[in-house]
């Protein structure tokens, strides 16, 4: 039977990797998800076969049922606008599960020791690492969810970001406390002989949980996509550590895949913002989550336009670039944008989509959103590929994107986002910015693009205004 388990694990790992490869593009992403899901099913079956002699089958089955009941409905009902929140929550649940596994392992092995009383190094290190990182990931993800869902009062959030230095000091103390407790548990804790030993593992989970809260609370909204990716990587690493303690091959491999891919993605996103990961974690910018601010503070004049004027500009252009942002996602305007682009293409206008690496609220948010509307993958252009196109583009229409188009990142050394690579939309011959109001973006800073000489503002709901532009195009 052990041979069957090994074979199932190998097949499952192969499907994990093959499924992950499918996630590199919208055309193969759905298939990749299905393949990875089947691989996970095989891994679960192999694990159940491996523990066939256990007497806890009822509890195991009950856990599987509860997981399906709680996991499937939100996955089916969640809109693309709330997908980052769902990812944060699911990621947090994974980290919390790993922390609980470490706690259970502590109780089951008499303080991470074998039955004969001899310490088991891989169990001790793996379980303690899983407890600390899993707890950090869980509580950090909860904060990320609260921020993304905008459940936190804006003024409170702004004060939290302003107190980042205090949080940093607290996190250093909490990190030292976590390591001290972990060392004590590894050397001295023995639930079989010491009734107070269980308090130490709970103390470790609480201290690590506080660290997770304090790490993410002061991080600004503009950095949240990177934070989600980082927490995802941490959850994977904690799962791999728990797998090491449990001698579960599936958890080790799956955890390392998630940890490695999440780490690579986090690093790539940080580079896309021209910032280091420590700078994001310990010195974030912009945390008021989009508190309204007048963007003509620089003294410029805001010029409004109409849907008919916008339609005329784009209809007689040679090339139009669409820059999607979170506002497009909130309005669910992707299908309206696709229809507008199709009409332009019928008139001989070349339409491209400029995708910034951190546009939206999570990695790949805009890619998935546009793929949902069946926008051609070839029309989606990454920042490095499209930036050279703007200076020969007739019209760029910015839909709900703010911080990733802010020229202050390139021109103003005093700006909090100075040095962050942006989409060079201001170099276009004409720019149409579609927004509900003159409020600032998620980083909470002014955008001089809105008052530039070549920029016109089209105010209103993205879906409604794009639909109006489409009707005007039909009438031309």
Number of domains: 3
Sequence stretches where pLDDT stays below 50 over 5 or more residues: 285-297
- Could you spell the SSE succession in H and E letters? HHHHHHHHHHHHEHHEHEHEHEEH
Percentage of residues assigned to helices: 55-70%
Output the strand order for the largest sheet. Answer: 3-2-1-4-5-6
Biggest sheet record: 6 strands, parallel
Distance between the termini: 72 Å
The computed structural class is alpha/beta
Q: What is the strand content?
A: 5-15%
Rg from Cα: 25 Å
Count of distinct strands:
6
Account of the protein in words:
- It is a single chain.
- The protein is α/β, with parallel strands linked by helices and 476 residues long.
- The protein has three domains: 1-77; 81-282, no CATH class; 307-475, Rossmann fold, CATH 3.40.50.1220.
- Helices cover 60% and strands 7% of the residues.
- It has helices at 2-22, 26-50, 57-77, 83-108, 121-148, 154-162, 164-188, 197-216, 224-246, 249-272, 277-282, 307-315, 326-331, 334-346, 365-372, 383-386, 408-411, 462-475; strands spanning 319-324, 350-355, 380-382, 395-399, 430-435, 455-459.
- Strands 3-2-1-4-5-6 form a six-stranded parallel sheet.
- β4, α17 (408-411) and β5 (430-435) form a beta-alpha-beta unit.
- The chain is globular, with a radius of gyration of 25 Å.
- The termini are far apart.
- The model is unreliable at 285-297 (pLDDT under 50).
- It catalyses: NAD(+) + NADPH + H(+)(in) = NADH + NADP(+) + H(+)(out).
- Its EC number is 7.1.1.1.
- Keywords: Cell inner membrane, Cell membrane, Membrane, NAD, NADP, Oxidoreductase, Translocase, Transmembrane, Transmembrane helix.
- Residues 6-471 form the NADP transhydrogenase beta-like domain.
